[in-house]
Amino acid sequence: MKQTTIEHTIRNLVMAADGRDTEKVAQLLAEEFRIIFHHFPVSGNTTLIDKTGYLAMLAQGKAGGEQRTLCIDHIHVSGDIASAVVTMESATKVFHTHYQLVKKGTDWLIISDMPKLTVKEVQDAK
Questions:
Q1: Contact between 118 and 93 (Cβ < 8 Å)
Q2: By CB neighbour count within 10 A (0-12 exposed, 13-18 middle, 19+ buried), where does 105 fall?
Q3: Which of 49, 56, 124, 126 has its CA 20 to 30 A from that of 101?
Q4: Any idea which fold 2-118 has?
Q5: Which residues make Cβ contacts (< 8 Å) with residue 108, sequence separation at least 6?
Q6: Greatest alpha-carbon span in the chain
Q7: Hey, is 64 helix, strand or coil?
């Protein structure tokens, strides 16, 4: 049951982010949420983006907006905390993402998102 609820949270987040639905995304993220980019956009850098910053990026069209396939590779639950490893792929990017979730009341919320982003090489059409 816990894993099903966690999967539901992740699927809803991905669909909402792909559609840039900031209201839905906000409901699925813990207030303490952070995205942790390591080696992006420059190797050696670690960048943190908080919930407010991420929602602003979605609203401004700087994040999201691309339909992605989603494969939930692994979920581990320990009481009221959980982690998930997922792979998402769009036409131009592949995300290998580690989510951390916390249970607040009856809801599982995403508290951190640590993606490894790979940009696909563009094939010339001939």
A1: yes
A2: exposed
A3: 56
A4: Nuclear Transport Factor 2; Chain: A, (3.10.450)
A5: 2, 5, 6, 9, 82, 101, 102
A6: 55
A7: coil
